[in-house]
Amino acid sequence: MVSRRNLLIMGACGGALTAVGVPVFAKETSVSAKGNVTPQSATAITEVFGDGVKFIAVAVEYNADIDSAKLSAQSFDVAGRSVREVFTSHSTNPADRASQGRFVIITLSPQDSNAALAEKVQPKAGQSSSPMGNGGPGKAGDVPFYDTAYKTPVADVVQTGNLTTAAGKSIPKNSGNIATTQVENLIVDDFKQLTFDDPKTGKVLHYNLFVPKNYQAGKSYPLVLFMHDAGATSDVTRTTLLQGLGAVSWASKEDQARHPSFVLAPQYPEIIADDDSHTSVLMDTTINLIKSLSSQYSIDPKRLYTTGQSGGCMTSIAMDIKYPRFFAASFLVAGQWDPALTVPLAKQKLWILVSQDDDKAFPGQNAITAVLEKNGATISRATWDGRWSEAEFKQAFDEIEAKNSPINYVTFKKGTVIPAGESTQGASGHRNTWRIAYTIAPIRDWIFKQHR
To answer: How far apart are CA 227 and CA 224, in angstroms?
Structure first.
């Protein structure tokens, strides 16, 4: 456990998300003078899913090792939540599961109605109720009303069953509450929050940066740029990390084991790209930021990659048009652009993913790929089912990759991305595309195979 954890709290203005450092209780505690084994602290654990950050576990630290074999889901109760499993760990991270340890991990169902931490903030009089405006994101450069904030994950835990220490001592059940006092945000906490003051554009850009573990200046690393959608526009730097998997998926332990890389996730306070195929000056600031980072770290200029969803996808397209040899490959999720402007993409490496339920991006990408083919591009096409298992996605990926085309255009079959019971109205088919897109590991792996 590091020496501090970031506690997410609601800011005073407009429900903004802020980060406050909270000291962690000392790990090396001793049994009390009376020899009692007692809980020392409780930490709320969050994890980001395709549809956003959720409160998924509580880690209770004791002052002696606990025997995991004697634990069950009935050992603890968490008010208002469904306990799925209880086990011991060497740390607050559930991935450090062990047969015995000071930390008892109580996993909670991410399907609980109160598991999700995002909540809508009501606008004040005269403010637009949505950053999407009248069917679109608004104009490039506009500062919309920030309509999403994140609740503090808190819980009261009760030890409802007897526990046993690794030494065989019994710890009787206790009706007293163990309240969480700190938060660990899996993967999210591994990103640094930084600021870039661009001397060329005069703009200031806040961003999140993941630096590969055990980074060595003597090695060369790729960099993945992720850009969020208009709905995540905010002046709170971590918002882009919490809204979905677009950034954090590349920084997971599994992905970094396969592809050690930098992950850059800017937080845009204004609309970065609009439906009229215009971009904010922050697009150029982002390019300048990558150049600046490349002068600070050993980043390979031939292995720069861009990806984004909706407005972030459109910004990726705009970058590929204006800076056609900057990125080695692009993963374009649920976006469109003026087809007449996209000719430079014909000679680039692209993986395009949209849903047939998306009434803008689907026809928009059909038009773009038609232009690219007219200009000599080789494109492989496939229709996938958004409900497929990991193995089914891998099989479908292998089939299209075998064609070895520089551009792959995949659409999700109509009706397969929207969860059962969710309305199909509005932008549901659009938003649910990226809920699934960044869970498909073979596409992420494909990106790293591409070199400029």
So the answer is: 10
Are the CB atoms for 225 and 262 separated by under 8 Å? no
**412 and 327 share a domain?**
yes
On whether both 173 and 243 belong to a single domain, the answer is no
C-alpha angle 410/414/419, rounded to 5°? 105
φ/ψ (deg, to 5) at 116: -70, 140
Interval 381-404: pLDDT, tens? 999 999 999 999 999 999 999 999
Supply 40's token pair.
């020392």
Q: Is residue 127 part of a domain?
A: no
Q: Which structural domain, as residue segments, surrounds residue 12? A: 4-117+153-185
CATH number of the domain bearing residue 388: 3.40.50.1820
Q: How far is CA 345 from the centre of its chain?
A: 27
CATH number at residue 77: 2.60.40.2180
Please list the alpha-helical segments (H only) found in 227-360. 239-242, 245-248, 253-258, 282-296, 311-322
Q: What residue spans of 265-389 are helical by DSSP H?
A: 282-296, 311-322, 361-374
Residues 411 and 323 in one domain: yes
Contact 276, 337 (CB under 8 A): no
pTM: 0.91
How many distinct structural domains can be found in the chain? 2
212: DSSP letter: P
Q: How far is CA 330 from the centre of its chain?
A: 18
Tokens linked to 305: 């990659």
For residue 215, give both structure tokens: 């980074």
pLDDT tens track for 183-224: 999 999 999 999 999 999 999 999 999 999 999 999 999 999
**Half-sphere exposure at residue 220, Cβ-oriented, CA atoms within 13 angstroms:** 5
Q: Kindly state whether residues 227 and 170 are assigned to the same domain.
A: no
Flag whether 139 is in a domain.
Answer: no
What is the rounded distance in angstroms from the CA atom of residue 128 to the CA atom of residue 134?
Answer: 10
- Asked if residue 293 belongs to a domain, the reply is yes
393's enclosing H/E stretch is helix 390-401
Q: In this structure, are 172 and 209 located in the same domain?
A: no
Distance CA(296)–CA(316), nearest Å, equals 23
Domain assignment present for 361:
yes
Same domain, 396 and 274: yes
Helix (H, G, I), strand (E, B) or coil at 226: strand
Contact 272, 140 (CB under 8 A): yes
Torsion, CA 10, CA 266, CA 189, CA 3, rounded to 10: -90
